[in-house]
Amino acid sequence: MSKxxxxxxxxxxxxxxxxxxxxxxxxxxxxxxxxxxxxxxxLYKELKGVSPPKGMLPFSTDWFLTWQPNIxxxxxxxxxxxxxxxAGASGVQAVMKAYQLYLEQMPPEPGExxxxxxxxAWTLVRFFQGNMLVLAPCAxxxxxxxxxxxxxxxxxxxxxxxxxxxxxxxxxxxxxxxSAS
Length: 181
Ligand SMILES: [Zn+2]
Prior knowledge:
The protein is 50% helix and 4% strand. By secondary structure, it is mostly helical. The chain has a two-stranded antiparallel ribbon with strand order 1-2. Strand 1 and strand 2 form a beta hairpin. Helix 1 packs across helix 3, helix 4 crosses helix 5 and helix 5 packs across helix 6. The longest helix is centred in the middle third of the chain and has 20 residues. It is elongated. Bound molecules: zinc ion. The site of zinc ion has 7 residues, from loops.
C-alpha cells in the first residue's frame, strides 16, 4: 500500500464530507474518494446518523428524459458545461459546484428532497461523457435540453414549450422525484 501524506488524506476526508452533505450515495463516494469503504461508511454514519442506503444506482437514461426530471437535468448539465468550459472546473469538483448552483436555482420545497439528487447529477455527467445522452436545441425556444442521441431531434420541442396537459406537481412527477433519491 502506498503511503499517503496526512495532507492528502485530510483533503480526501474533506471531499467525502462535502459529498455526503450534498447527498452522495456510497457508490459515488467509492468512485470519487480514495478512502476505504469502511472509513467512508463510518464517515457517513457520523454525519448522517444512519447507515448509507444499500443497493445499486439506477443505470438507465430513461429517468432523465421524462418531463420534469428532463427540465431539472437540462438546467444542471448546462450549468456544469458552463463551469467546465468557462471557469476551468473539472472532475468531481465541477459536479459539486454545478450542483450547488442548481440548488440555488431550484431550491426544493421545505422538507422535500431536491428533484435531481447529487448522485443523479453525477450519473448524468457520466452519461454525457459516454455520449449516451447529449444536448439538443429546442426548435422553439432555442434552449438546450437533454435528449437521447438515437432519437430524431431535428425539430425537437422541449418540455417547457410542449407541456403535458397535466403539468405541475402531478403524481407521476412526484413518483419520479421519490425514486430519484
Ligand atoms: Zn423550448
